[in-house]
Amino acid sequence: MTSLTETGCRTRRERLWKTVPADVEWVLIADPRHVQYLANFWVQPLSFSGGERGLLLLERAGRASLMADNFTVRSAVHDPFVDREIVTPWYDHRHAVRNRDHALFDAVKQVAPELAGRKGLVEAEWLPLAAAQLLPNATTDDMETSSLDLGTILRNLRRQKEPDEIELLKVCMRAGDAGQARLREILRPGLSELEIYLEVQKAALEAAGRPGLVYGDFRGTNGQNIKAGGLPTDYVLREGDLFILDYSVVLDGYRSDFTNTMAVGPPSAAVQELFGYCQAGMAAAEKRLKAGAACRDVHAAAAGAYPENGKSVGFTHHAGHGIGLAHPEAPLFVPESDETLLAGDVVTLEPGAYVKDVGGMRIEHNYLITDDGYERLSHHVISLT
To answer: Which of 9, 229, 246, 299 sits CB 3.0–4.6 Å from 333 for a disulfide?
Structure first.
């Protein structure tokens, strides 16, 4: 099973320590995405511990400690890459359960004496105040301009994907490709959005070879309902509709996100014209993809392929965005972006077109940014039919 590697986790920790102020001797990571990013500890969201979490204590000297309750540890997808696990009891099948958060606080109490006299930094956005108060010498600044905003430091580091992250993302992409292929096989009038979702989900998870989350836009659109989005409903597709499959497959927190729009029945000339604008926008934006490119220029390239820079065809959303452990995440291809592409970014291009009485559509691919261009990670067919 493809997952994050110990080498990758240790490399990301080293990058973190190079960014954190030199007088900080320990950091406490609380966001589950960042615990995964640095230690490969991900609670299976489809388990009875879905939504629970562990805390990760990293020390500059090199030791990594995971803190969690006994049932949360049992629900992890993989064995974490840490030096020790501090597991506190929550439920033992004999006694009534207590507030589950307090079991996690007990683990924090155990490590607190070890940290006395040593400056530390906690991920204030995610750490409960009750836990932070147990820690000596902990800095909890979370101001946007503070060099001690640990959450922002980690989010910035996440943009540069390491090889193990890229391999996991490629598994997500292959699963997404399989779902898109399944749509092409089954799409016809008379199918409901929910029926399509179930078929796509099955194909995607079979390709992944393990359980995962499948979410996104599984919606029929038409000239009167041009921007439908969200999870499937019981709506039954009719001749002349368009179906947007804009979805993600999430494995160990990492995700794909790519789109095709298909015509239910023969597409009209007006629909084909709109689709051509989307394809031209994607092709123009692809030419701008490389490390060092301004994100606003990527958006401008996409929009410039449309009449009146997209205004006449309702291209009003972003031209793409970053993906990884969140959706969307930096960078964003928007008109007023101040971001620049970095080698290691994984991004989408997502041009769309929405015209009343014609229809709504968008297409999307995923890309790994390199110094001299990009590697396309998604390989589904983009076509109306």
So the answer is: 299
CATH number of 163-376: 3.90.230.10
- In this predicted structure, what is the pLDDT of residue 243? 98
Cis before 136? omega within 30: no
Q: Tokens standing for 254? A: 């990492």
Q: What is the pLDDT of residues 249-308, one digit of tens each?
A: 999 999 999 999 999 999 999 999 999 999 999 999 999 999 999 999 999 999 999 999
Hey, where are the domains in the chain? 6-158, 163-376
For 95-111, the pLDDT digits (tens) are 888 899 999 999 999 99
CA distance linking residue 298 with residue 349, whole number of Å: 9
**Distance between CA atoms of residues 247 and 267, nearest Å:** 22
Q: Are 179 and 247 in contact (CB under 8 A)?
A: yes
**pLDDT higher than threshold 80 for residue 129:** no
Nearest to 313 by CA among 350, 273, 261, 370: 273
Is 128 exposed, middle or buried (CB count within 10 Å of its CB: 0-12, 13-18, 19+)? middle
Q: Using one digit for the tens of pLDDT, what is the confidence trace for 295-311?
A: 999 999 999 999 998 88
Specify whether the CB–CB gap between 374 and 368 falls below 8 A. Answer: yes
CATH number assigned to the domain with residue range 6-158, chosen from the 4 options 1.10.720.60, 2.60.320.10, 3.40.350.10, 3.40.640.10: 3.40.350.10
Task: Tell which phi-psi region holds residue 80, choosing left (phi > 0), alpha (psi between -120 and 50) or beta.
Answer: beta
Q: Please tell me the distance from the alpha carbon of residue 293 to that of residue 337, in angstroms, as a whole number.
A: 12
Identify the pLDDT of residue 142: 43
- Res. 146 pLDDT band, cuts 50 70 90: very low
